[in-house]
Amino acid sequence: MKFSLCIGAYPGKDEVYHLEKVKEHGFHGLEYYAWWELRDLKRTAQEQERIGVGINATCTKFISLVDESQRDAYLEGIRQTIEACKILNIRSVISQTGNVLEGVPRDTQRRTMVETLKRCAPLFEESGIVLEIEPLNGLVDHQGHFLQRSDESVNVIDQVDSPNVKLVFDVYHQQITEGNVIRNAIGYQDRINHYHIADNPGRNQPGTGELNYVNILRAIKNTGFSGFVGLECGYTVDTDVAISQFKNEIASQVLF
Q: Going by C-beta distance under 8 Å and a sequence separation of 6 or more, which residues neighbour residue 151?
């Protein structure tokens, strides 16, 4: 199990500052979502080499997966993202699904998503990068988002049937949407490429809410999972203090 920070952990600071902090805290990667906002991809790649840690995940362009009229634009965004990932040596690309289309049957929208993902799959298989679909909660943060439940998300992944199209399981979102976190986080582990964590309510650092992250992370680790767990959260105290508390109070009980 490897831990990553997410861009924005240090507000107003760029990716290089965040990468330095990743290194300082002994973490293993940085999630930088909007790769197209980087000023110079090659410069960032050089900084990654210098620091010794890099960006482990990014997003593709925010284009609907359930709207068939947007399919070509989505695929073009995927092609551009893969080229950026090659420069930056990123192995994971996160995609939201877009919001529900009013007046279009849900089954139709799901089939559109599956077909688009099937067309994406060969591009990711060829590049050795994993596309991760992310279910998001619709109650608090993302009203109307198409994929919210983990079971429906797994059904979509199973229909696509590619080793390079998987899920990112966000514990915060799934706690709000469905609860039953440990059972789903480990039950679907073979379809999950990496995890996001934040506490609930508030979406702040683990240890500030109702989720028992020692038990959750220990259960995930005990499956043999060796991928990334990203702290996609806000911080109620100084970021460095919060990360140190996380390492001392949660991670140390899970990893050792």
A: 184
**What are 157-203's pLDDT values in tens digits?**
999 999 999 999 999 999 999 999 999 999 999 999 999 999 999 99
Is domain 2-255 given the CATH code 3.90.550.10 in the classification?
no
Q: Taking the CA of residue 221 as centre, how many other CA atoms within 13 Å lie in the half-sphere pointing to its CB?
A: 17
**Dihedral pair phi/psi, residue 230, rounded to 5°:** -100, 130
Residue 63, C-beta contacts closer than 8 angstroms, at least 6 positions apart:
70, 73, 74, 77, 98
Dihedral of CA atoms 70, 163, 184, 93 in degrees, nearest 10, equals -50
Measured CA to CA in angstroms, residue 60 lies from 50, 83, 252, 254 at distances of 26, 11, 33, 32
* Cα of 43 vs its chain's centroid, Å: 24
- Assess whether pLDDT exceeds 80 at residue 214: yes
| pLDDT at residue 256 is higher than 80 | no
3-state helix, strand, coil in the chain (%, to 5): 45, 15, 35
Extents of the domains making up the chain: 2-255
Q: Is the separation of the CB atoms in 26 and 244 below 8 Å?
A: no
Distance of CA 191 to the CA centre of its chain: 13
Cα radius of gyration rounded to whole Å, the chain: 18
Q: Which tokens hold the place of 2? A: 């490897």
Q: What is the DSSP letter of 100?
A: P
Tell me how far apart the 2 most distant CA atoms of the chain are, in Å.
52
Angle between helices 41-51 and 71-88 (to 10 degrees): 40
The residue with tokens 């986080």 is 185
User: CB neighbours of 105 closer than 8 A, spacing ≥ 6?
Assistant: none
